[in-house]
Write a structure and sequence with these properties.
Helix content: 25-40%
Order of helices and strands: EEEHEHEEEEHEHEHHEEEHHH
Structural class: alpha/beta
Strand order of the largest sheet: 5-4-1-8-9-10-11-12-13
Oligomer: single chain
Largest sheet: 9 strands, mixed
Number of helices: 9
Number of strands: 13
Mean pLDDT: 95
Distance between the termini: 26 Å
Low-confidence stretches: none
Length: 312
């Protein structure tokens, strides 16, 4: 099938410093490396899907600066259509990232040009023929909701990555076909409902399954970091809860691994896979992304994913 993916949202320059461990509040540490890389959740997801063979259109905004040049070149270089990335007067958004030796990270973002992306940019014609619309919350909720509405009206599968977390209006939830969250975000969305432990049996997830369904969300992907993920699908009576085993690697930098997962899910849904199949594929893509430093430059190609997916 290989339908087109529309990704609407953020592009950031990632200013990353590497260190032995993350600093405590008020503490200053020596770093052991620094890099400026292309990033932003939406740009990352677009690049991840593009490298995995999907046809992707990115809608966003960057500044008229060198960081904007870098981001347009990086996303375009992955085969993504960047003709709808606006160049605006505001500086390009940035993310300040610290990465410790274990691969864990902490991130602070400044919206910059991303804050100028308005609902008016979500022109219905841009969504014609789209199979998947991929969204996150690094731009305004009004803009996300406009993109979700345009995707819904075009008959696309609306995939919402609820990150960074913000309360979601009921109208946006109703427009969402697949919700992608980590366990903490899932708990926040469900008013503090605790998620099961990573090693809990499938039956332990039925409470969360029912709670999501009560809010109109039948298909939910809950990521568990190094412990894999869980597919919750109340429309699948045969397998409503499916645990996706993690792909075990030696992590070097987990920055953007979640975006690699989201992009992988979008790519496989656009290719006609079921949500379970898409999650299994995305698990491999995200794990391989964590084996290299950086975000977009670390994302794997189809040829790199295939051997691990097939047990090689």
């Amino acid at each position: 099938m290989n339908a087109r993916i529309v990704v609407a949202g953020s592009l950031n320059a990632d200013l990353t410093i590497y260190c032995e461990r993350l600093p405590m509040p008020g503490e200053t540490l020596h770093g052991n490396g620094f890099a400026v890389n292309p990033g932003g959740k939406s740009a990352n997801q677009a690049v991840a899907a593009g490298k995995l063979g999907a046809a992707v259109t990115l809608i966003g905004a960057v500044g008229q600066d060198s960081n904007g040049d870098m981001l347009v070149a990086s996303t375009g270089g992955a085969g993504v259509d960047v003709s709808h990335v606006q160049r605006v007067a505001e500086p390009t958004g940035v993310a300040i990232i610290s990465v410790e030796d274990s691969g864990e990270n902490s991130i602070i973002i400044s919206a910059g040009a991303n804050g100028t992306l308005s609902p008016a940019a979500m022109e219905p014609a841009l969504f014609d023929g789209a199979g998947v619309v991929c969204l996150c919350l690094e731009v305004s909720l009004a803009t996300v909701q406009a993109a979700a509405q345009a995707g819904h009206d075009a008959g696309a599968t609306v995939l919402l990555n609820l990150s960074p977390y913000a309360p979601v209006p009921a109208e946006l939830a109703q427009l969402t076909d697949v919700l992608l969250v980590n366990a903490h975000e899932a708990s926040q969305f469900l008013d503090g409902l605790a998620m099961p432990d990573a090693d809990a049996p499938a039956a332990a997830w039925h409470g969360a399954l029912s709670a999501f369904a009560a809010r109109g969300l039948k298909q939910v992907l809950v990521t568990l970091g190094a412990q894999g993920s869980v597919v919750l699908d109340s429309s699948n009576t045969a397998e409503p809860v499916v645990r996706i085993a993690p792909t075990v690697v030696r992590a070097v930098d987990t920055t953007g691994a979640g975006d690699a997962f989201t992009g992988g899910v979008a790519a496989r849904l656009a290719a006609g896979d079921t949500l379970i199949e898409a999650a299994r594929y995305a698990s491999v893509a995200a794990a391989l992304a964590a084996t290299k430093k950086g975000t977009q430059t670390a994302y794997p190609s189809v040829a790199e994913v295939a051997p691990t997916l097939n047990g090689g």
